[in-house]
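Late entry, written up from scratch paper. The run itself happened at the end of the previous shift, but nothing got recorded in the book at the time, so transcribing now.
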Amino acid sequence: MPGGRRGPMIVARVGGRLRLVTQVAHQQQCGLLVAAWGNDDFARPEPWDPVVEATACHDEGWREWDMHPQVLPGGEPQGFAAMEVGDHVAIHRASATAGAQRGDRVELLVGMHGAGLVMRRLGLDGEVERLDDRPGLARALVIDRALAGRALRSGLGEGAALAGWAWSAYRILQAIDLLSLYLTWRGLAGGEEWTLRRVPRRPGDERGVDIVVRPGAPRSLSCVLDPWPFAADVVEAPVEARFIDDRPYRGADDLAAALSAAVAEVLHTSSRRA
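Output as recorded:
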């Protein structure tokens, strides 16, 4: 690849061009968002540091993929939503390995994130399919993460308290992940309204509350959230992106050349209280 430049994984059509954000840039933005999380209505689960660590490294397994962008048969850059199950499995196993280097709780949360992406986000996106109905590789990932999670829980030895913490922390990670995707993928760019589901207000809040996300001021890179889960009234979360022509690309080399010629730009995205 020319210059070894990282390739895109989050692809959005904006103003007649393609806007490309890598998964590593996305997780860096997630780190900024989670650091701002929490107020009188949305308490942070304790310990909090593993939640921050897990959110900031949950897509670390994408780093190598970001460096080698691919093209779909029709010539469009391959986004994360168009990848094969087997590739997703390898990526999320690598992410869990990276999480393990940061501690047991971090590994637990990153593993839950990976399993959730092939299991309806563990119920946040509707009824979870039977494991036997999932493709073999996806089933293997879920079983692998379940066994690893069981071992981690046994080692941490906190029983129901750990399970409650993990479920709250996982849902916060999912809310942050989806908010970042709203800002960088199709949500804000398409003027859509999204919902962050079952976000916990406090430890033990099993059901949680839905947070509605919708576009902010016209022609801005801002969104509004209701109810509001952050400490400050405005949360800035800049993220690096590249813009290239919206055309069919002849292959990976053609796409890589376009990316090498594109200048990195910072998207100054923000979230605001409704």
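The mean pLDDT is 87.
(Scratch paper discarded after transcription.)
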